[in-house]
DNA sequence: CGCCCGGTTGACTATGGTCAATACGTGTGG
DNA sequence: CCACACGTATTGACCATAGTCAACCGGGCG
């Protein structure tokens, strides 16, 4: 059973300063608070299927969710990875275009659609923040497209590890140099869906990076990186360009 | 030489109702008009390099531009294709993360960065429209990710053709059924950069679709499609899902 | 005319996919 | 306690798709 979250005051919310409400003042927060409620999902549960009505929009408070698309013959591609503070749903569209799935146990802070859309129109701080977050997602999608279109399997794995390490370091406020540990929130299959690979190739390339001493496994889901720079060198990214810095 | 565009009144602008200014009333339009100017680029010219300062934001009025990223060894991936009415640049970021290139002769309607950012804060109609356009771009990026990660070379080509056909049909307000013609704004190499392929594979798959009677070439850049549904069937997309409809 | 650019085609190869066997870890039930 | 099953992961053998390298085509232009 997913651990339930008691209704929390926004002031104590762990994502208060990174989510869509980040720029809100006390008054705006109060208005959001009126239309919000929490929902919990267990790992593996669907949050929405493509084509479903989605009655709410909201933020991931805890856990990890994925956004993915499927071709008619079953091939699937993950197109979004939602970590705490990320936003779910599109204002103005009541139907999900994507499958949204809880990857781990997830808590969402949900806003009823209509009131939230109304609030967007007269609460500039929410709209501004949502624009900023959407632009960030677009940048992330473009980095992801480079990975999908042009990187080798090994580079894809290294890139995914650095992406997760960076996001974990932001959330946990840890430093990103020298030796670090990465907790993978994804199965090998989910990593494959993220990277446009098969799970066998994911497994092989992780083994290869391990054999080459770039990473060490601690169980299947925890990865030790003795030298983060070395991992970055495996991503194929330009070390000087804006991407890495 | 690129055909120059005389300073045009917004009222006569061909993208007036689809660009970032779409929702503006006369007063708001006047404020935009104060900070706007036009720039022309010839086919092949850079509009910005990754890492450059980008002193303006703006809209594509005429022509086609690409957004792309390059790995240190030269592999490049297109991550955005800008057609008339599409927006260039990110408010709040003065430096381009991407290479932006004129694919054909291009005319931009440019806004000086600072005044435009100021205007965003007190002109909700512009901010709302920009959010909507950014969400559309994110959807397009996600469809693109599915193409890059999971589709075969033949499906990628068919997908690109349908995408261009759809965008041309919106711009030209033409119907999308039965026999249609597609004008490719891209070279084979640019198509390869779009799809994460080599230009040889692009050429081979176009030849294959031609040999199979799905398309007919009229010169190198114009493609006749006798039955658009047949082309869609080649994309691998779910024919019922939200994607195709 | 000859060059250059964009495009096509061919021969060969490499990367990653497929299919299948095996391993490992965890929870269930005898 | 062990046996077993299930889900997840690893590894191997083989194969298919797309990449590489190279030759060639054709139109436009100096």
Describe what you observe in this structure.
The structure is a homodimer of 245-residue chains. Chain A has helices at 26-35, 113-122, 124-150, 153-172, 188-195, 199-211, 228-233; strands at 36-41, 46-48, 56-62, 65-70, 76-82, 87-88, 99-102, 106-112, 180-183, 216-218, 222-225. The model of chain A has no long low-confidence stretch (mean pLDDT 92). In chain A, the strands form 3 sheets. Chain A has a 4-stranded antiparallel sheet. In chain A, strands 2-7-4-5 form a 4-stranded antiparallel sheet. Chain A has a 3-stranded antiparallel sheet with strand order 9-11-10, with helices on one face. The first copy, chain A, is of the alpha+beta class and 245 residues long. In chain A, helix 2 (113-122) crosses helix 3 (124-150), helix 4 (153-172) packs across helix 6 and helix 5 packs across helix 6 (199-211). Chain A is built from 7 helices and 11 strands. Chain A is 38% helix and 22% strand. Chain A binds a DNA duplex (30 and 30 nucleotides) through helix 6.
Keywords:
7 helices, DNA-binding, Arc Repressor Mutant, subunit A, 4-stranded antiparallel β-sheet, 245 residues, Jelly Rolls
Short description:
The structure is a homodimer of 245-residue chains. Chain A has seven helices and eleven strands.
How many structural units, i.e. domains of chain A?
Answer: 2
Q: N-to-C terminal Cα separation of chain A, in Å?
A: 41 Å
Radius of gyration of chain A: 19 Å
Mean pLDDT score of chain A = 92
Write the H/E string of chain A, N to C.
HEEEEEEEEHHHEHHEEH
Q: How is the quaternary structure best described?
A: homodimer
- Largest sheet strand order of chain A: 1-8-3-6
What is the C-level CATH assignment of the largest domain in chain A? Mainly Beta
Instruction: Work out the strand percent of chain A.
Output: 15-25%
CATH superfamily of the largest domain in chain A: Jelly Rolls
The total of beta strands of chain A comes to: 11
Which structural class do you get from the secondary structure elements of chain A? Answer: alpha+beta
Which residue ranges of chain A are poorly predicted, with pLDDT under 50 across at least 5 consecutive positions? none
Number of helical stretches of at least 4 residues of chain A: 7
What share of residues of chain A is helical? 25-40%
- Would you identify the CATH architecture of the largest domain in chain A? Sandwich
Please report the two chains with the greatest interface, counting residues with C-beta closer than 8 angstroms to the partner's C-beta: A-B, 50 and 50 residues
* C-alpha geometry of chain A: globular
Characterize the main sheet of chain A.
4 strands, antiparallel
